[in-house]
Amino acid sequence: xxxINSRKFDGTIRRSWHCELVERRxxxxxxxxxxxxxxxxxxxxxxxxxxxxxxxxxxxxxxNIFRFHEPSGKxxxxxxxxxMPPKFENDVLDxxxxxxxxxxxxxxxxxxxxREDYERNAELFNYPDELRAKVEITLAExxxxxxxxxxxxxxxxxxxxx
Length: 162
Prior knowledge:
Layout: E1 2-7, E2 13-25, E3 28-34, E4 39-41, E5 45-47, E6 52-58, E7 63-69, E8 75-83, E9 87-89, E10 92-104, E11 110-113, H1 115-124, H2 129-148
Parallel strand pairs: 1-10
Antiparallel strand pairs: 1-2, 2-3, 3-6, 4-5, 6-7, 7-8, 8-10, 9-10, 10-11
């Protein structure tokens, strides 16, 4: 199993979990994990035990994408983090979450979440202007992927959408 650490800008761990690496395509790493207990999430509501998470991380991109499936196998939603490119070594994947998220249901209509958290942390951690610009560019790129229903290098990502 691979440990995945979502970190704040200062390097402290925000969340940590374990997944299995199921595929590597050039800079893309695809993991799969399963919730071992029910979780109440502020944006996603109740996530049932047995929900499966397919997680797509690119070592050279400023976002990652999670595709959640209900225990029945039905597509639940997509959840995307704007983040600094991850580092993967010694069975640990680490990334810095930059707070802005994108949520999309099976219809792939995206909603931007947590802009207030981003603004607050950008001030708290004094995000450089270049980083702030990269976040906005990456957000626009990610929204375009949903609009076009295509993520370069992962043509099957939306294949199971309804």
